[in-house]
Amino acid sequence: MTSDREEPRGGGKLADDQEGAIVKTVEGMRSGAGGALPSADTLDRDDPLRAQRDQFSIPQGLLYFAGHSLGAPRLSVSDRLAEVEREWRRHLVRAWGDCGWIDLPRQVGAKLASLIGAAPDEVVCADSTSVNLYKTVFAALPLAKGRRVILTERDNFPTDLYILEGLARQARTELRVVESDQIQTAIDGDVAVVALSHVNYKSAAIHDMAGITAAAHKAGALTVWDLSHAAGCVEVKLDEAEADFAVGCGYKYLNGGPGAPGYLFAAQRHQAVVTSPLQGWLGHAAPFAFEEDFRPQEGIERFLCGSPPIISMAALDASLDLHRSVGVAALQAKTRKLTDYFIAQMDEAAAGMGFELVSPRDSRIRGGHVAYRHPEGYPIMAALIERGVVGDFRAPDNIRFGCSPLYLRFRDVADAVARLVDVMETGAWKDPKYQTRAKVT
Ligand SMILES: *Cc1c(COP(=O)(O)O)cnc(C)c1O
User: Fold this and answer.
1) In whole angstroms, what is the distance from residue 294 CA to residue 375 CA?
2) Beta pairing, strands 392-394 & 398-402
3) Which residue from 57, 186, 225, 243 lies 20 to 30 Å from 267 (Cα-Cα)?
4) Which residue range(s) make up the domain with 365?
């Protein structure tokens, strides 16, 4: 049975006034009780984002459902990369100033800001998400004076848990790891920082950023949000939530390319008093004065450390113009429809095949991918990938289908589910070649 584990996570609940009124949005897609699903072609025809797919390069016939892991490249990225190469060739070291390379972290930060509900001077593009998490949590700790606990959830992305574990040891603080439905109650007078992912990497469940942030503030703690699985498919509102810090990833729904730099947000009100634990020269007020002692930059750029990776940052920059022109509300609306359609197709075609829906059924508390548990998840996904449907697998038994709003069609969803059903009906996944785990899954 395709069943539904409607476990609202910790803060993942809807606001009080919405509770009890959870609409079964998947059912809402049907034309009346038990009615037929709308055809994929009809949904594609009515899709306001349908033209955006032409901006991307996706191999013919491939159904790409791993944009939550590595987004597809926008075509114009290659022009931008060629331009950077020309600048490098012609201007050499002078390009840092003459071609504005030195300002890129801030410029890309400003573009990112518009996608996550922040002001342009509150975000900077730099480093990886892992490193940025380290920097922001470390910086936030002294703001909660006298407190010594960092709070997170067991279900958090492993790198977040590892970074926090190491940081807690180095900063002589305690890491408190609780279940997702225990977060609000675990915020007590000892908690300095609450560090969570906005969208869960396995289930895609969305935490109530505003509610948890308010609870943290009420108790005298600060919040650091990881937006990796949210930015580009969910309308993030750091400003409305009064979030303190945030970090995120450039290569998932933002299509920045493999290993694209991440980003970091610090609310304006904190910027003058925080210090990064990694005091690199580009975070210095006058990097080219080559002073002996560290003096931080005035604003968000104090979180810079070493030289920005201009080539990969330029690729991200070129991609973000598209997200900005489409707008986060439209990205979120399409994501919800695609994921709803995926679930509805599975309900209809894959019932009785052992798939258990892990993601919330309500699209308002669900991010950009749909996850199912299946005891044979690994070989099933391996067989599916060989049949041109690229999703991914997360141990122990989750298969995930990322529904990137800019380049996926409803037709792709219908075809992907049909191929999955075929893999199950023919027993194709039982082939021994699908049993061996690859290095990257
Ligand atoms: C993808 C992801 C990361 C990635 O971290 P990197 O340092 O870029 O490898 C971190 N946290 C979360 C929640 C993620 O989803």
Assistant:
1) 54
2) antiparallel
3) 186
4) 21-74+327-423
Mean pLDDT estimate for the chain: 93
Nearest protein CA to atom 14 of ligand 1, as residue: 228
Residue 17 has a pLDDT of 40
Q: Indicate if the pLDDT at residue 239 is higher than 70.
A: yes
Q: Tell me the CA end-to-end span of the chain in Å, nearest whole number.
A: 26
At residue 311, the 3 state secondary structure works out as helix
* 235 assigned to some structural domain: yes
28 shares its domain with 114: no
Rounded distance between C-alpha atoms, residue 396 and residue 258, angstroms: 25
Q: Which helix (H) or strand (E) holds 332?
A: helix 328-349
Q: List C-alpha distances in Å: 193 to 38, 42, 321.
A: 46, 47, 33
Q: Is the entire prediction scored with pTM above 0.70?
A: yes
* pLDDT tens readout for residues 323-351: 999 999 999 999 999 999 999 999 999 99
Note whether 408 and 292 are same-domain residues.
Answer: no
Residue 206 is part of a domain; what is its CATH number? 3.40.640.10
Residue 275 forms part of a structural domain: yes
**Residue to probe by mutation, ligand 1, list 152, 162, 196, 228, most atoms within 8 Å of CB:** 228
Write down the pLDDT at residue 343. Answer: 98
Catalytic residue from among 157, 201, 245, 378: 157
Regarding whether 356 and 307 lie in a shared domain, the answer is no
Q: How far apart are CA 373 and CA 92, in angstroms?
A: 52
Q: For 21-157, where are the alpha helices, taking DSSP H only?
A: 25-28, 40-45, 76-91, 95-98, 104-115, 129-140
Encoding tokens for residue 271?
């910027």
242-to-15, 265, 289 alpha-carbon distances in Å: 16, 12, 36
Tell me how many domains the chain contains.
2
Q: Are 79 and 314 in contact (CB under 8 A)?
A: no
Task: Please confirm, yes or no, whether 157 is among the known catalytic residues.
Answer: yes
| Site to substitute for ligand 1 among 68, 157, 167, 234, most atoms within 8 A of C-beta | 157
Position 204 in a domain: yes
Q: What is the token pair recorded at 371?
A: 């996850």
pLDDT above 90 coverage of the chain, percent: 90
Structure confidence at residue 28 (pLDDT): 66
Cα distance between residue 400 and residue 372, in whole Å: 7
